[in-house]
Amino acid sequence: MSLLPLTRVATSMIALTALGPGGFSIDLESKLYETVSVKDFGAKGNGTADDTAAIQAALDWAKGKGATIHVPRGDYKIMNTLVIDESTTTNENINRISIVGSGMDHTVFRWAGSATGTMIEYKGPEYGAGGIHSYSRITDIAFISRADWNEEGTVITKYYGIAFSAKNMAYFRMDNIRTQLFETAFRLEDFLSSTFTNIIARGLGKGVIGYRNFTAGNPDDYQTGPNNLTFIGCTFSGCRDYALNLNSGSTLTYIGGSIENNGLIASGAEGYRYGVRIENSGVEGGIGCTFVGTYFEHNMGDADVVIEQGDPTGNPALPPRGFGSGYTFLGCTFNRAFNDQKTDFNIRFNTGTLSGALTVIGCGFLGAGSYEPSDTRPCIQLPTNSAARTWKAIQEGNWFSHPNIDAPPWSKTQTFTVLMDNDQTVPNATPTLVNFRKVATAGNVIGEDYGNNWRDDLRGWTAPFDIRMSFAVKVQYTGSLVAGNYAVLELRVNNAVTRTYPLVSNGGGALLINCDLNLKKNDLVQVVTTHSAGADRTIFSGPDATYFTGHPI
Predict the structure, then answer these.
(1) DSSP H helices in 310-401
(2) Looking at the predicted structure, is the pLDDT value of residue 32 above 70?
């Protein structure tokens, strides 16, 4: 019997017949492209060979083809950054790369590069909101790095690398990913409209860092994000510093999952320790974050969730760019169970100079085990900054294990703020009521509840019932005092002076009072000022110059 010689034929010349009615015939080469493995490019996946070049070759081949790169079961050693470069791609060309493993327990990308290196970097173009519309996904892979330990082998002293870094991209998915031992798991710059599902991130320096890339010195020249990010069923646990830190974005939605045992050790110049930090949101949307059914436990440092409004440009010389935001927690669990492993607060809410609304409904706040509750560590901490002038908070249907110690005494609370409708002349050496007025045409910001207790006829605020209030008062005189003269600001209750702020010599023209007062029902609170300039002086009525604000505590 003789065998006929086999002739090699180009796969593009072999046609495959459609399997069913309406199907299309296709050549073998195109069919093979539908499933391409990194092993087709020489990857070994044996844990010892450097697979960087082979996997990069697969990514380079897939670019522009819309191909899915399969990563079979194996342990793939990565020594240098794998780059997915879409920086020259337009949104009209949507043939994007996807990477699919064989499961987070079976396919491992193991980082063996430098401590400051990045394992996977996705580059979008430098234009437009969110840069590239990626329409791509990474799924069913474990990202594992390495760490240095102390001599006893009990504490990690150094983590290595960044697992995934993305810049200028949108419409991305990451599913079923396990990541460990990186300095940072995910760094997201100008990143939006993307979803993370079933991410298991444990034993890291930091979990997620998301931020907006402002051009130096110009807060209006930026891309976007981190906006409209959704996390579903994700776990962030055992992060040295924090689980999530999102700055200058909007609409973080976190459904289910857990955030626990984070903030174990504060490191670096930041010194941050917490579970989640939502900072400077509202630049491009009215919702800062929504947590639904999330489990918070054993975090350390500041709070399980820190909400901070400030300067999203990162440059104190530039004005804040946010517009305020709403923050919502529905059906979440907050546990503090150890006295030596706890947060100062479960939720810390600080709006800075911007507006904000906090809603907490149907949540549970447990202090158990060795944890010792204290009224200095309330479950929900409201703004204490004197500049926090327009916020509201609602908590309803929540359960507190220590209702008489660290639970909020309020169910609905908010600030009131009154301004001046015109500049005011203050005669020399004459105590004068500051002309604050609840006048709509002046654009005054009045709280819906406690603002209704403002009396224009008395130029003061009356307590609706026995209440403890925090007040912040600022009066700005035009010009500065000359040497030897003085100005005084007084906060009076029922015409009795309770707090004063003297300004002497060349100290400028601003007077400030920040104080907490216990008031009885119908107590009248007013602001009085006087000066010794020798001639009339003028109070400037600008909203950031002169104001009277208060909120219950």
Answers:
(1) none
(2) no
Contact, 180 vs 156, CB < 8 A? no
CB 303 within 8 A of CB 297: no
Q: Indicate the pairing of strand 235-247 with strand 276-279.
A: parallel
State which H helix or E strand residue 276 sits in: strand 276-279
How far apart, in whole angstroms, are the C-alpha atoms of residue 497 and residue 372? Answer: 39
Give residues with Cβ within 8 angstroms of 424, minimum separation 6: 432, 434, 435, 538, 539, 541
- Give 96's contacts (C-beta < 8 A, 6+ positions apart): 66, 86, 134, 135, 136
Contact criterion met (CB below 8 Å) for 299 and 275: yes
Q: Write down how long the chain is.
A: 553
> What is the residue type of 238?
G
The β-bridge partners of 225 are none
Distance in angstroms (rounded) separating the CA atoms of residues 168 and 166: 7
* For range 446-470, the mean pLDDT: 76
Residue 430 burial by CB count (10 A; 0-12/13-18/19+): exposed, middle or buried? exposed
Helix (H) or strand (E) run with residue 304 in it: strand 301-308
Residues 511, 531: Cα–Cα separation, whole Å: 11
Q: How many other C-beta atoms are found inside a 10 Å radius of the C-beta of residue 34?
A: 9
> Any idea what the Cα angle at residue 425 is, between residues 422 and 427, rounded to 5°?
165
- Model confidence pLDDT, tens digit, residues 41-100: 999 999 999 999 999 999 998 887 778 899 999 999 999 999 998 877 665 556 678 999
pTM of the model: 0.78
The answer to whether the Cα torsion of 35, 40, 43, 45 is positive or negative is: positive
Residues of the chain above pLDDT 70, percent: 78
Q: For Cα atoms 121, 167, 114, give the angle at the middle one, nearest 5 degrees.
A: 35
The answer to whether the CB of 32 falls within 8 A of the CB of 70 is no
pLDDT tens column, 321-345:
556 788 999 999 999 999 888 999 9
DSSP 482-534: PTT-EEEEEEEETTEEEEEEEEESS--SEEEEEEEEEE-TT-EEEEEEEE-SS
Cis status of the peptide bond prior to 409, with omega within 30 of 0: no
d(CA 520, CA 508): 35
The yes-or-no verdict on residue 312 having pLDDT over 60 is: no
Task: Please say whether the dihedral angle defined by the alpha carbons of residues 265, 345, 255 and 337, taken in this order, is positive or negative.
Answer: positive
Residue 268: half-sphere exposure toward Cβ, Cα within 13 Å: 12
Does residue 409 surpass a pLDDT of 60? yes
Dihedral sign from CA coordinates of 162, 164, 168, 170: negative
- Sign, CA torsion 32/38/39/42: positive
At 443, list the tokens: 């654009």
Average pLDDT in the chain: 82
Radius of gyration from C-alpha coordinates of the chain: 30
Write the CB contacts of 154 (distance below 8 Å, at least 6 apart in sequence).
Answer: none
- What pLDDT was estimated at residue 528? 94
Q: What is the mean pLDDT of residues 365-391?
A: 82
